[in-house]
Amino acid sequence: MNSALIPNLDLRQENVAVPLKIENGAAHTLAMSARQTHSLVILDNRELDRQCLAQCMAAQKADLQILAFGSIEEWKQKRDEYAPLSAILLNVGGKKVDEPAVSEQIRKLSSEFASTPLIVLADSDDFGQIVRALEYGAKGFIPASVSVSVCMELIALSVAGGIFVPASALFAMRHLLDSSNATARPLAGIFTDRQAEVVEALRRGKANKIIAYELNLRESTVKVHVRNIMKKVKATNRTEVVFKLNDLFQNNLSGGLAN
């Protein structure tokens, strides 16, 4: 790289205090233009990482003032010098969201800046970490696997009021829902849908009259279902049918988990 193209920057500075613009591969510091009406603050205690990310983002979004700090306290000391804050990007890197220091930081920032979206940037796209970040108050979770341009679009989405999570999280959620449905109805292949509802009521020890009321059935119809259920599990009385249903339920559940 031709060092003549690089402006004389003080590399000891703790943050990128002025917006950056990339022109022909060279970085130039510029005074804030009239178009830069809002700012984005990147929080990352790794100085090199935050400065590199700030420069890449500034190249993508010339109308947004990109600032990078090691902590929110550093930004507060000079906040009056910058455009109004539109979003905070917290880069946790390889740390886990549920680590005490990280979770506390997310909670504190989301509480203090309630009207400003806090977005978490992380190396991982683990479903559990994403859910926890949102529970702690984040308005979005961006995995480091996306490009800078996509990252900027996702930040804009959060600023507009949306909440972004990676597609991998949706797939994981679908898997959990499918697993939940399979667990909730482990005997679906043995009984009809209506019989399965009666089975669940029997396992809870409910009387026929209560089952009829809850399922909007005649009590005589419930008795027919109970008799058919007894035949399928080869039980001779109500107590035996409940015992066998519980045993059958556990066997099916264990088999499903083993798969």
Automatic annotation (TrEMBL):
Keywords: DNA-binding. This is Response regulator transcription factor. It comes from the Bacteria. Residues 39-159 form the Response regulatory domain. The keyword Transmembrane does not apply. The keyword DNA-binding applies. It comes from Rhizobium bangladeshense. CDD domains: LuxR_C_like. Residues 184-249 form the HTH luxR-type domain.
